[in-house]
Amino acid sequence: MSWKHKHLLGLENLSRQDIELVLQTAKSFKEVSSRDIKKVPALRGKTVVTLFFEPSTRTRISFELAAKRLSADTLNIAVNVSSTSKGETLLDTARNIEAMNVDAMVVRHSSSGSVFLLAEGLKCSVVNAGDGCREHPTQALLDMFTLQEKFGRIEGLKVGIIGDILHSRVARSNIWGLTKLGAKVTVCGPATLMPRGIEAMGVDVCYDLKKVLKQSDAVIALRLQKERQQDKFLPSMREYSRLFGINQAKLNEGSDHLIVMHPGPTNRGVELSADVADGKQSVILDQVTNGVAVRMAVLYLVLGTRK
Amino acid sequence: MTLFYLGGDMVGVKIMDQEAIRRAVLRMAHEILEKNKGVDRLSLVGIRTRGVILAQRLKQAIHDIEGFDVPTGILDITLYRDDLTSVGAKPLVRETLIDFDITDLKIVLVDDVFFTGRTIRAALDALVDFGRPAIIQLAVLVDRGHRELPIRADFVGKNIPTTKSQDVKVILGESDGKDDEVILE
User: Fold this and answer.
1) Which residues of A touch B97 (CB under 8 A)?
2) Per the CB < 8 Å rule, is B130 touching A37?
3) Complex ipTM, two decimals?
4) What is the pLDDT of residues B67-108, one digit of tens each?
5) Which of A256, A288, A226 minimizes the C-alpha distance to A55?
């Protein structure tokens, strides 16, 4: 079993074996983060740049820590301080950074598919940290890693994805990954935020949150992307919260071993109530811990397949 | 010494059989105890994959002699290799499991074949990331020569003179599912 991808652009084009290799490799890297000296020399001398055209805290520092724990040098570029505000194109910006002999570029951009443009136009490895509404592969990988850790398997698990499916790259990446690994995925959310034809991705659609909570082993609550609600998809936040927000009362009627996941940042009181977010069924902070291990595995694997 | 056909034009020579390996491990266990004056603060760390099995066998042998279980850990040196950036596809990384504090312990590193010394160099780098042992010693089943670094073994099962192009294969029941043997081909 060996890794053959120079880039990580999404889970759509990975095989089940590829995904399992990342998860297995991440297990070893999780141990590294638990040591006193949290650093191994595997990527010594490599340079990893994070290029973020959208705001992010968690994902960016998670990638940065992952690169640092592998002894790579890191450089963080955020859009508001870069020359794109002076009119430079995406590819030009990236090519200029690459010209300084960068080995991997971790990119977040608001346009779906922008990472393909970069992967074609650059010689270095490109890792997708979220492109528009398309994919956010490392988030899905860390979700799957967390599920595997909690349940010991992914095959046969019933996973509900709740919320704004339409705009969610986290949902899409999770659907690709989880279905490839044999999980049964049900998506649930307001009809206005449910993409037409989503069933073609191999998922069930359900508009009844209670039913999903009852039948699932785990639910992933998506962040309601307030910045993308300008087209009036919802009558009001309160209505959304009443119908699709998860609180302890609804959770008590769900399956007894249910775990609650969230990619963050959480809108407390909207998709999750505070008692659920901090409750014993929540694994949100485990997800964050596992994120570093998964991103270490991804950087290690993509940077090994050049030449 | 038995010559046997391995397929193609390769002929392998059996250097050690099951009994020879068993006696070598037992002798090394005695030597480790003698040199370290018993089991006080002694611990074993096996290098993946076959070093782990040999460490387990040494642990059992030490238990049979002294009636004491020495702490035993597993080391994966992949991330410390000096050829990581030059090899094509990355080797599989597996877990390191050392669930005791190695600081001030007497560590015996265990590996199957001692060749260039680069694996041991990587293992030393990895070990010191876990703490500061009082002393690190090296036990190997086979020393085949051709060192590229100034590293030597403290306990050796068998010295086997080889040419650089030859291959030494250590086969152990636990990992290979057949009788223990060491083959030179």
Assistant:
1) 31
2) yes
3) 0.76
4) 999 999 999 999 898 877 665 566 788 888 999 999 999 999
5) A226
